[in-house]
Design goal:
Shape: elongated
Order of helices and strands: HHH
Number of strands: 0
Radius of gyration: 18 Å
Low-confidence stretches: none
Strand content: under 5%
Structural class: mainly alpha
Largest sheet: none
Number of helices: 3
Helix content: 25-40%
Amino acid sequence: HSIQLEGYLFKEKKIQYPICIGGERACPPEDCGGEHGYFEMLKTLSDPENDDYEDMRTWVGEDWNPEKFGKNDVKFDNPYKRWNTAFLEK
């Protein structure tokens, strides 16, 4: 994934940071085979006539939609540790 800082906002009271304020598309499912596998999966799911369509739909779940993004579904796992690892530790 790419994350781009486009600016910053002033901190508001009663909000626990960090938070996600937007994004695009659903996260690829785990174990989908990397970038190549993900694009093959999207190709298969776009064609109900494909021999693998039903198996693929069952695997990802009937409700999975590659266009759906839920900013409230984004979870940050110990962001301070990640920041320190990325920028401060040598």
